[in-house]
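4.2 Preliminary Data

To establish feasibility before requesting continued support, the project team ran the inverse folding procedure on a target of 959 residues. The structure was first converted into the token representation described in Section 3, and no sequence information of any kind was made available to the design step. The complete token record follows.
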């Protein structure tokens, strides 16, 4: 659906005796769609999603057109298409296609009643079929839509060939994955989880992972992939990190394997939101119906947790739009298509493996051959053998994997390989070594591998996964720069050809199409080429931020640019990375990047490959920074260890111009790594400063005992906290029920509306005082003292109206949903209080109720509106209905914005027990309408929304 909206100066279709002279019914579809989209964009100017919506999307839910907006829509249809629709179109039409039927029917009835005058069309015809065709892959909006499109086109095509045990593989077709996902989604739906709830997935590479991941998406939930514990010795550290992630994500459910259930249950004591631990088998319901969630491009698809410390997990928020934009850009830049075969062993909890390989396969439809990370690590030759066996054309891995193949693949294994099919060998996710690239290309050239196939790339979870790619078929580009000039001045000056100490830096390519990169200095000024600074990016793949981590978000965003945390420079339009901003070591006026020294030290005999960390640590006695080299080794003989220390010290002096202050030789696995294999230098520094480097991990049974004790203590604290919270909630209910009965009696007995409102207000204020609820009111003096006023407030809780009734003067009435009229006892009291009951579902009746409210305001009555219309559990300011603003504009009544903070936490939608929470009521400056009419009503709405958002301690969603 790529219809263009009509130009602003296009005239409306002429009418003769009420009959449209448009050329034919089929040409009306794109013109009607353009009218609907234009109005929707006026209502939600920041969202600009209407262009992606079609004839079968909901006018209410998708386009955001309430009853009053639909009245305006009918007027525009009359103007743009020359067709006057009646009340039935207002009340019965649910989609633009329904409106199209009314338009065609009205024109045909008019044609039978009177002759029509034929007038040439003002724009080219577009067929109805073109509007209603299935989306091609580039037009779909969500991952679920992508899955459904492929399922309809080729359900029996093999998407994944999965190696679960050794050389035994199974083929997974779209239909197989769909069936697994539907069964899992049905089980999740049966648990009653709300749309948008987080579901943690801690599963190894296998069919169950895909069932859980896609099943969560099918159920409208947000998957959170987690990595399972690799070794028993790391159990305690792993659980602490996982518990921190579960707390940050507020995950409701954990899906894992059966043997991990006892382990996972310990997490429930440290993650209060976690309500259950299940396996895929536990949850799957066979023969379940398909569940289609109402997902949009802007909905969160999943959370990608980046490597962080135990207490500060960073959950990157990725929407469906982010994912699809990044997949399109990556594969367009690399010319990958459905005919390719991608071989991957990358973990499914990491962005390169999950998004680049698995979701890339789902989107493009290429064949994915998947093996587990453990299979690769146990025998790296399996990766290359699988590429050979399946004629793989594309694969990706971090630099250490290429290095591991160089070290572990034997000459005999090499002789059996044919890698001439491998045309794209991506290298990313960690610093790319030029030595590794050259040695890998040289050694595997005998297998048919071309050097031009090697492609260093750069990406990060904050940009979904990919950010910059090199040109296809060029091979690696290595820049030789003067080491001293870069360290001293931050300038990547090209080195002399005879400079033996030149620093070699690999290009990561140019930014993906539609994405931007820049390098900035300390003051935020963009630097010229070859000057080193902080690397920033922006584009359609950029995250909205980290979940529940405002401190990290402050460091992430710089206006509309995002910080990568990396240092680098641009040259020839390509990005060259020099190190991590936090890892940089400043010594004697020089900026030292640890990666090069780590690589060099790893080449010393006896030092484990990948087992080196270089970092700066604080000397407790002098307070100065010390340069520390941590190297893993199995060597125990003192003379050999002394020789290794001397060699490391000499390397440090050669490469950095100064020897290391301390060299620590530690047992294997002492260098802490992230889930993706990156060195955790900050964590190593912390252990060094605590004197714990190289300390043997406690036995697993001791770790179990410590975790159990921690869980018991956490459960005890939680139980005490819950008891206090429940006691206060029950006390609040007792007070409100008691005084509520008195208020109901007063309302039913007292003779006048004014007296009834004063009595209800007095009793409400007494109840608030009795339960000790802290309520702070600001700006009450801004409320106009005389004349009718319209108050608009955000709506977060059923307590909102009660609190505003206690705060505002008693002459205010409220607009409420008409369903309350049928509630026993409450309906009668509301009528006695003069509450205006408004119909929400019958469009025609809603319009009539709005007109009745206009009459009340013109008569001098002041009314409180909640323009969001209905409660939602999710925080943030939702889209506004227009009733209050149309009334204000038509009656020239001032609008007073009132912001409520804390009521959502006091009594959230769906909860019955209130929680004590500080409440703030902020009364804003009065907004006066400029006049009657649609445009002035929209202007009022936007001004009121801006005023509410300015004081609201929750995010404001696009309208």
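Position-by-position output of the design step:
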């Amino acid at each position: 659906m790529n219809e263009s909206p009509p130009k602003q100066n296009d005239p409306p279709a002429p009418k003769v005796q009420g009959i449209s002279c448009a050329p034919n019914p089929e040409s009306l579809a794109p013109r009607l769609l353009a009218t609907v989209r234009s109005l929707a964009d006026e209502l939600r100017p920041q969202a600009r999603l209407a262009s992606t919506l079609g004839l079968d999307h909901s006018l209410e839910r998708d386009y955001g057109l309430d009853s009053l907006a639909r009245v305006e829509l009918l007027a525009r249809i009359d103007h743009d298409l020359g067709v006057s629709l009646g009340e039935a179109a207002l009340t019965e039409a649910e989609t633009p296609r329904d409106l199209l039927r009314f338009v065609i029917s009205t024109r045909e009835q008019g044609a039978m009643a009177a002759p029509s005058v034929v007038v040439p069309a003002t724009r080219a015809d577009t067929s109805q079929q073109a509007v209603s065709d299935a989306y091609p892959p580039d037009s779909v909006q969500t991952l679920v839509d992508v899955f459904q499109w492929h399922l309809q086109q080729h359900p029996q095509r093999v998407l994944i060939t999965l190696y679960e045990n050794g050389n035994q593989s199974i083929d997974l077709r779209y239909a197989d994955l769909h069936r697994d996902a539907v069964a899992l989604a049905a089980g999740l739906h049966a648990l009653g989880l709300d749309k948008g709830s987080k579901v943690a997935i801690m599963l190894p590479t296998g069919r169950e992972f895909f069932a859980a991941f896609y099943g969560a998406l099918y159920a409208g939930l947000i998957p959170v992939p987690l990595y399972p514990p690799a070794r028993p010795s790391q159990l305690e550290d792993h659980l602490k990190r996982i518990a921190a992630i579960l707390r940050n994500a507020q995950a409701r459910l954990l899906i894992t394997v059966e043997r991990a259930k006892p382990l996972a249950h310990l997490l429930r004591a440290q993650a209060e939101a976690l309500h259950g631990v299940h396996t895929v088998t536990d949850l799957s319901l066979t023969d379940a119906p398909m569940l289609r969630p109402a997902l949009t491009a802007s909905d969160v698809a999943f959370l990608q947790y980046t490597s962080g410390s135990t207490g500060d997990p960073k959950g990157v928020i990725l929407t469906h739009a982010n994912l699809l934009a990044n997949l399109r850009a990556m594969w367009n830049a690399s010319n990958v298509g459905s005919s390719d075969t991608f071989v991957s062993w990358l973990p499914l909890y990491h962005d390169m493996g999950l998004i680049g390989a698995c979701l890339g396969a789902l989107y493009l439809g290429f064949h994915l051959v998947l093996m587990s990370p453990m299979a690769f690590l146990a025998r790296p030759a399996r990766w290359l053998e699988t590429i050979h066996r399946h004629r793989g054309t594309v694969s990706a891995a971090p630099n250490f994997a290429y290095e591991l193949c160089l070290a572990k693949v034997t000459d005999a294994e090499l002789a059996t390989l044919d890698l001439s099919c491998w045309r794209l060998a991506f290298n990313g996710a960690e610093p790319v070594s030029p030595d590794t690239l050259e040695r890998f290309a040289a050694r595997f050239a005998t297998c048919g591998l071309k050097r031009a196939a090697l492609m260093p790339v750069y990406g990060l979870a904050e940009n979904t996964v990919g950010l910059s790619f090199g040109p296809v078929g060029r091979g690696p580009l290595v820049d030789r720069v003067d080491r001293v000039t870069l360290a001293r001045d931050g300038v990547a000056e090209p080195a002399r050809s005879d400079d033996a100490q030149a620093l070699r830096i690999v290009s990561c390519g140019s930014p993906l199409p539609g994405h931007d990169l820049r390098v900035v200095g300390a003051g935020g000024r963009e630097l010229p080429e070859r000057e080193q600074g902080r690397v920033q990016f922006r584009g359609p793949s950029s995250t909205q931020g980290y979940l529940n981590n405002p401190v990290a978000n402050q460091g992430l965003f710089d206006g509309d640019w995002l910080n990568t945390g990396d240092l680098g420079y641009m040259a020839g339009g390509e990005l060259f990375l020099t190190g991590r901003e936090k890892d940089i070591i400043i010594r004697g006026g020089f900026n030292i990047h640890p990666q090069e020294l780590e690589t060099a030290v790893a080449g010393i005999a006896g030092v484990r490959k990948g087992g080196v960390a270089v970092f700066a640590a604080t000397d407790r006695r002098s307070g100065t920074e010390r340069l520390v080299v941590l190297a893993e080794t199995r060597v125990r003989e003192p003379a050999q260890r002394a020789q290794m220390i001397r060699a490391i010290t000499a390397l440090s002096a050669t490469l950095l111009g100064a020897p290391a202050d301390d060299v620590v030789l530690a047992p294997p696995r002492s260098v802490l790594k992230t889930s993706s294999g990156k060195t955790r230098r900050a964590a190593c520094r912390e252990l060094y400063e605590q004197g714990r480097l190289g300390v043997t991990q406690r036995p697993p049974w001791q770790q179990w005992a410590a975790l159990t004790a921690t869980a018991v203590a956490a459960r005890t604290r939680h139980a005490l906290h819950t008891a206090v919270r429940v006691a206060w909630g029950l006390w609040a209910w007792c007070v409100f029920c008691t005084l509520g009965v008195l208020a109901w009696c007063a309302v039913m007995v007292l003779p006048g509306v004014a007296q009834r409102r004063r009595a209800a207000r007095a009793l409400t204020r007494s109840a608030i005082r009795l339960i000790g609820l802290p309520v702070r009111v600001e700006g009450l003096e801004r409320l106009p003292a005389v004349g009718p006023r319209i108050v608009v407030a955000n709506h977060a809780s059923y307590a909102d109206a009660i609190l505003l009734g206690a705060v505002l003067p008693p002459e205010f009435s409220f607009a409420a949903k008409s369903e309350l009229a049928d509630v026993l006892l409450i309906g009668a009291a509301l009528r006695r209080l003069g509450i205006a009951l408004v119909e929400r579902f019958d469009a025609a009746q809603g319009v009539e109720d709005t007109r009745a409210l206009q009459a009340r305001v013109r008569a001098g009555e002041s009314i409180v509106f909640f323009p969001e219309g209905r409660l939602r559990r999710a925080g943030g300011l939702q889209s506004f209905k227009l009733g209050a603003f149309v009334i204000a504009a038509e009656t020239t009544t001032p609008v007073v914005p009132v912001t409520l903070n804390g009521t959502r936490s006091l009594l959230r939608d769906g909860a019955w027990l209130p929680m004590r929470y500080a409440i703030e009521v902020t009364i804003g400056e009065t907004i006066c309408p400029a006049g009657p009419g649609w445009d002035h009503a929209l202007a009022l709405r936007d001004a009121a929304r801006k005023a509410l958002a300015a004081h609201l301690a929750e995010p404001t969603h696009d309208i």
